[in-house]
Amino acid sequence: MSTATVTSKGQITIPADVRRRLGLESGDRVEFVEVDGGFAIKPASDDVRVLKGLLRKPATPVSISQMNAAIRARGGGR
Questions:
Q1: Are 32 and 41 in contact (CB under 8 A)?
Q2: What is the distance of C-alpha 10 from the center of its chain?
Q3: 38 forms bridges with which residues in the sheet?
Q4: What is the C-alpha to C-alpha distance for residues 40 and 33, in angstroms, rounded to an integer?
């Protein structure tokens, strides 16, 4: 089991073997997930495909000219 020390700023360094097993690289984000009285760490790199179906399709298609008109009406030309 790997351990890490929390700094006075609340930061930790994830041990190299844990980063390797999680597939983490510099700049990656992680999530802390609450589980059974504790926390688990996991990469915050969900595949974009998990978003599929999140938004409904519009009832009627919108044309490019309608989109441009809506942008102009909302002050998009500032």
A1: yes
A2: 21
A3: 35
A4: 5
CB-count exposure of residue 65 (10 Å: 0-12, 13-18, 19+): exposed
CB–CB of 19/42 below 8 Å? no
What's the pLDDT band for 76 if we cut at 50, 70, 90?
A: low
Residues 8-53: tens digit of each pLDDT: 999 999 999 999 999 898 988 899 999 998 999 988 876 777 778 8
pTM: 0.52
Burial class for 22, CB neighbours closer than 10 Å (0-12, 13-18, 19+): middle
Helix (H), strand (E) at residue 15 = none
